[in-house]
Amino acid sequence: MAKRKQSMYPLAFQLGTLGKTRSQLQVTDKTWTMALCRYMKDKYVYFCEGWPEIAEGNLLKQGDICIFECVPRWTNVLLKVTVIREC
Fold first, then answer.
1. What average pLDDT score do residues 2-13 get?
2. CA 58 to chain centroid
3. Using DSSP, how many helices (H) and how many strands (E) does the chain show?
4. C-alpha 53: how far from chain center
5. What is the pTM of this model?
6. How far apart are the two ends of the chain, measured CA to CA in Å?
7. Pick from 66, 15, 76, 10: which is nearest to 43 by CA?
């Protein structure tokens, strides 16, 4: 799988803040710390820190599908992820 430094996601994941937001991403029973970034005119947020480690640690490959569930919390955002492997 080619490593991308940024992946785009709908703006609602970051709850309207600008800049960098520390977040957690949970895949099955493991939680990873990462950061979501949004820049001034962007309509999307990006995984700007932590994604390569998450992809590698979960053996993600091209063709795998990740379903993200956004769970807002007082201190940060939790993204629960379900991975559907390519057959």
1. 51
2. 13
3. 1, 6
4. 11
5. 0.67
6. 15
7. 10
Give CA–CA dist 28/2, Å, rounded. Answer: 23
What is the distance between the alpha carbons of residues 51 and 25, in angstroms, rounded to a whole number? 10
Per-residue pLDDT reduced to its tens digit, 31-83: 998 887 777 676 777 788 888 899 999 999 999 999 988 877 776 678 899 99
> Per-residue pLDDT averaged across 3-9, rounded?
51
* The pLDDT value given to residue 20: 66
Contact predicate 13/77, CB 8 Å: yes
The structural domain count of the chain equals 1
- CATH code assigned at 65: 2.40.330.10
H-state helical runs in 2-50: none
Domain of residue 80, residue span: 8-84
